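#structure-requests
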Amino acid sequence: MLGGLPVEHDRGPVSHSDGDALLHAVTDAILGALGEPDLGSLFPDDDSRWKDGDSRRFLDEALRRMRQRGYEVSNLDATVICEKPKIGPRRQALRESLAKCLGVDADRVNLKGKTHEQVDAIGEGRAIEVHALVLLSKR
């Protein structure tokens, strides 16, 4: 899973949940903007309730906390760093999926794909890294 969408790949994530690194990063960005505990603190990997869980549940909880405090997502900027799958061909579908998850228009979501040019675990295709920044505004 990536950004709430299934992605065909010859490897799967090493994860307690569904391993959607993009949704995890977005969730942590929202929680961080609110000064809330991070994803691992709220949904620890040693709690069987979250085993194989849909990462949208985690994002939904962050969004609930955000709305409860009177905020909304103004925009999201995310960068997915991996060799495969290539982000470019999926960029628009991922932006639309993220926008739907966040309840905003797709023009408020930016997504970039980068590689590590075959260097280190990411470049060798053994890992994925995601950076996400979110701007929240008062409703």
